[in-house]
Amino acid sequence: MKNFLIRYFPLVLLAIAWEVVARLELVSSSALPPLSDVITAGIDMIKDGELISNGAASLYRAGVGLALAIFVGGILGVAMAWWKPVNVLLAPLVEIFYPLPKSALIPVTVIWLGFGDGSKILLIFLGCMLPVTIGAFNGARSSEQVLVWSARSMGASRLRMLWDVVLPSAMPELLNGVRTALALSFILLVSSELIVAQKGFGYLIGSLGANGTYDAMYAVVLTVAFLGFAADRLYLNITKRTLAWRD
Amino acid sequence: MARLAQALSDSGEPPNGTPEKAARFVYTLVWGFARIFSVVALAIAWEVLARSGTFTPFQLPALSAVLERIWSDAVSGDLWINTALTLYRALTAFIICAIGGVLIGMAMSRNVFAHWFFDPIISVGFPMPKIAFLPVVILWLGVYDVSKITIIVIDAIFPVIAATVIAIQGVERELIWSARNMGANNRELLHQIILPAALPQILTGLQVALPLSLIVAVVAEMLMGGYGLGGAMMTASRFANSTSVFAGIVEIAAVGYVLVKVMALIRRRLLIWHEEATDKTA
User: In this predicted complex, what is the ipTM?
Assistant: First the structure.
């Protein structure tokens, strides 16, 4: 606990500096409301349910989009590594679409699916799929030939080998790709909601900012930032457990 | 991506045997065709699907119409102005990230105080969706280039710092010891040993930061307006001009593709001395 405090003390310093600067009115209080006001505003919004209902909408979109991306992306990546024709067909497409800045798809998903959940889920799915695909592809390709050969010599069928040898050895890189996708899903979620939405974190930030209730806006911004951070830490812990069988 | 390209060229190796030349030629031909086959197929499928009437032209304008729009944008000059603006914003921010990120990373690995101060900020800030701070940045700096570049820097500098710190930590102790032994001073040590040895990983960090800058540049332009490829797409979307929206995607995709390729090229040039340049498995 003491180590933890010393380690994260700079953050506490920043928080104190924020409060002091705002209280002394060194910058206008509309540009930087005091941290204590922001926290009170956040608690109020949790009490009246505004933060929670919008947060649930956002997390639902991110969750569904990400789950689809992991499922489809993982299958595609392993298939590309395992069957050469699939690789020949898909690799050029992956190469073209991977560098596409995914935020460019925001207006198109709106044209296709409107302003609601569908367009955000589609955007997150499309944006997060390729990092997972490439992770799975690299992982499955790097499975040791010796393992594959010995499995084959022991009479394992192709499918069995895929399940018992290739998938486990693809896991570390696949999980790494999922981590990238997780971070990306938050970025895409917030930016698409900032641009067009009727609920969700991004919408809340935008409308509070437009109303000039800046302490509440800061509270939502900090909540989103914290959730992104917490999701990443949680994910790291889970992967550490999942990969405990290695070394 | 590098591995993907590697995989492609691996399977593209010409077969041995005679008559080798003819076989090689046929193989290159078939392979080249296979490479573009799916791209061409996708383009044809797009055109056919759009013309078949399954979708309205609003939902899916024909590829030919989209290409025509890009052409007319190029002739009128809008395309070049928007591309230049987006590139200016993304690349200025990227250069700030590259210089600032490497400097902060170096400071963190050489100075205990800098490490103590920045380490928690980096470890908390890296996984945060920093794009959420965009309204705050608008509040502080307005909607012009300064605030766009600022939000890009906030988003893209973290991978550079993290990569630099990890890279410098990973420099082999023996290298540093032998350099010291031969009388290198701090400055020489940094310039001739630590930076070159850390370069591959620092470049990896930059290769993460570059596409990120472009993503954020497009979002910032969509939200704040002020032209640029993202701004043009948003304007087109407000006027329900879906041909221009699709043209925007193709343009942004092209810019992203070129940037990523150029960065990979720079990496190969800079690391020509490094074993990864010849290492097939990397």
Answer: 0.81
